[in-house]
Amino acid sequence: MSCVKPSYASANTILGPEVTNYISSRSNTVSVGVYDANTGKTYTYNSSKNYYTESVVKMSMLADILYRKIPITSYENFVAN
User: Fold this and answer.
1) CA 67, 52, 14, 18: dihedral to nearest 10 degrees?
2) Beta carbons of 11 and 32 less than 8 angstroms apart
3) What average pLDDT does the structure give for the chain?
4) pTM listed for this prediction
């Protein structure tokens, strides 16, 4: 199995100018990332910004794991807590 490095493109390509114009008009910081599983491309907008998401992301991932009933390793269980 080979690992293919994803190619990157502007969010304007996938989101369209209306959405990116709206995002750029806002006074607060917004970033968007979209992965297209069909093409292997990742589209980003304002990807250089850093955010501290803390448990928000972990909760979403945990909900998906529980919904799909996917077994997790002890390390993944540790990280989730």
Assistant:
1) 120
2) yes
3) 75
4) 0.42
